[in-house]
Amino acid sequence: MLRTLSLLSSAVLASQVSFVAMAQDASTGEVIQPSVSTSVETAEEPNRFQTAFLKRQVEQTMSVGRAISSIAGHYPQEIVSIVDIALDTYPDKYREIIFAAISAQPASTEEIVHLAIEKEVSSCANIVQLAITAEPTYVDFVVQAAAVSTPEELDEIVRVAVLTQPDAADSIVQTLSQEHPNKIVDIMTSALNAVPFVGEYVVDALLAVFPNEAETVVETAVRESAQQREQVMRILNTAQHAGVSEDKLKEYAMSAGLSEDDVNSALSN
Predict the structure, then answer these.
(1) Last residue of a domain, one of 172, 194, 216
(2) Under 8 Å CB-to-CB from 107, ≥6 apart: which residues?
(3) Burial, 70: exposed, middle or buried (Cβ in 10 Å; 0-12, 13-18, 19+)?
(4) Residues 1 and 96 in one domain
(5) In angstroms, what CA-CA distances link 49 with 33, 93, 210, 244?
(6) Which residues of 216-246 are buried (b: 16+ CB within 10 A; e: fewer)?
(7) Quick count: other Cβ atoms within 10 Å of Cβ 190?
């Protein structure tokens, strides 16, 4: 599990005797005094303390999302453990919890996505979409975490990610291809089937990190975009500008199903 001991409860473990746990209300500054004493001999007590603290914040803010945001503002280093407890305590509020946590502490996006997928609060695809929506600039961290947690869902992760954030399609494909180089064709195919107009950007991004895979990259891009002449022209031009020779481009494009006339026409533009 990804649970970590909260700073709010570390004092409990440091003590050698039972005592009444105290915590500062993250939203009002008011001191909260739980009604039960906490024993250092019970490993579950820190989590029990955190759960009581979270519930108190939810009662005061009238929203688990606002409670998460408030706690994150005061204890940013504890956001993952708070999300861990929140998802266990309010599983039906997973959307609100994940969105609030990532929005408040985007640097913890990868851990939060891992945690949510591990707990199976929803499908991997839903979690990916939610996390990207919460913080679009961390899309690479989202897809990395999702692909590590559920590699068997790689195609769906790519599809949902590029549909949710099409402007980052090149980065998404590049990131996942570097992590799964033997899946370049599958990753490209999923991305281009979902958002066909990103072909030229995907080709540019992949040739930058896989210059020796020009044949695979260009053939796949042309094949998946064959019904869109303008896209094919842009893909071939992009590859040409990336340093792929005209002879090679003709070879790759024709292998992907284009006629010689179509290839010549594309390269002449």
Answers:
(1) 194
(2) none
(3) buried
(4) yes
(5) 10, 21, 51, 61
(6) ebbbbbbbbbeeeeebbbbbbbbbbebebee
(7) 24
> CA 83: distance to chain centroid?
16
pLDDT tens-digit profile of 77-97?
A: 999 999 999 999 999 999 999
Whether residues 27 and 58 fall in one domain:
yes
Residue 34 sits in which domain range? 1-105
Q: How many domains does the chain have?
A: 3
Answer with the one of 144, 168, 194 that is the final residue of a domain. 194
Tokens of 258: 């284009």
Give the dihedral sign, CA 97/99/105/107.
positive
pTM: 0.78
Beta bridge partners of 31: 24
> Residues with Cβ < 8 Å from 55, sequence gap 6 or more?
89
- Residues 6, 100: one domain? yes
Instruction: Using alpha carbons, select from 170, 176, 168, 169 the residue that is nearest to residue 150.
Output: 176
Residue type, 235: I
Q: Is residue 153 part of a domain?
A: yes
3-state secondary structure of 38: strand
pLDDT string in tens for the chain (269-residue length): 334 334 444 433 333 323 333 344 444 444 344 444 444 445 466 678 888 888 998 888 889 999 999 999 998 999 999 999 999 999 999 999 999 999 999 999 999 999 999 999 999 999 999 999 999 999 999 999 999 999 999 999 999 999 999 999 999 999 999 999 999 999 999 999 999 899 999 999 999 999 999 989 999 998 888 888 788 888 998 998 888 888 888 888 888 787 888 777 777 76
